[in-house]
Amino acid sequence: MHETSEIEGVMGHTFVLAQQSGGALGGLLPLLLIGVLFYFLLIRPQQKRARAQRELHSSLNVGDMVVTIGGFHGIIQSVDEGTVRLELNPSIVVTLSKQAIAKRAVEADADNVSGE
């Protein structure tokens, strides 16, 4: 439904203005849709990744094979509240923050490698 009104302009020209009813809701609807889309495409997936990373850090145990954010692969030798000692090879053990652990390393089974 459009309401029209005429306005007398400069030099005798008449302008017709169309006014929409429900303009406030029509103006907010696109912003609300963008907000909902933004939440489901950006915020929610990031929250899931952060939750998974927190769960990983809290479940680290001695003997776990892990990969750091720098790409180092190693075996956890000890776990403290905020740090881990990681054995990169038998002669190299480094102390890292738990946040430096990116993921657990998964060893391929011999059956899967041979295709059986």
Could you give the distance between the termini? Answer: 69 Å
**Which structural category fits the helices and strands?**
alpha+beta
Biggest sheet statistics: 5 strands, antiparallel
Provide the succession of SSEs: EEHEEEEEH
Q: Report the uncertain regions.
A: 108-116
Counting structural domains, the number is 2
Compute the number of strand runs: 7
Principal-axis shape: rod-shaped
pLDDT averaged over residues: 81
The helix fraction, in percent, is 25-40%
Quaternary state of this entry equals single chain
Task: Describe the structure in your own words.
The protein is an alpha+beta fold and 116 residues long. It has 2 domains: 1-59, no CATH class; 61-116, SH3 type barrels. It is built from 2 helices and 7 strands, in the order E-E-H-E-E-E-E-E-H.
List its salient traits.
alpha+beta; 35% helix; five-stranded antiparallel sheet; disordered C terminus; 116 residues; 7 strands; two-stranded antiparallel ribbon
SSE blueprint:
Blueprint: E1 2-8, E2 14-20, H1 23-58, E3 65-68, E4 73-79, E5 83-89, E6 92-97, E7 101-104, H2 110-114
Antiparallel strand pairs: 1-2, 3-4, 3-7, 4-5, 5-6
Brief rundown of the structure:
The protein has 116 residues and is an alpha+beta fold. The protein has helices at residues 23-58, 110-114, and strands spanning 2-8, 14-20, 65-68, 73-79, 83-89, 92-97, 101-104.
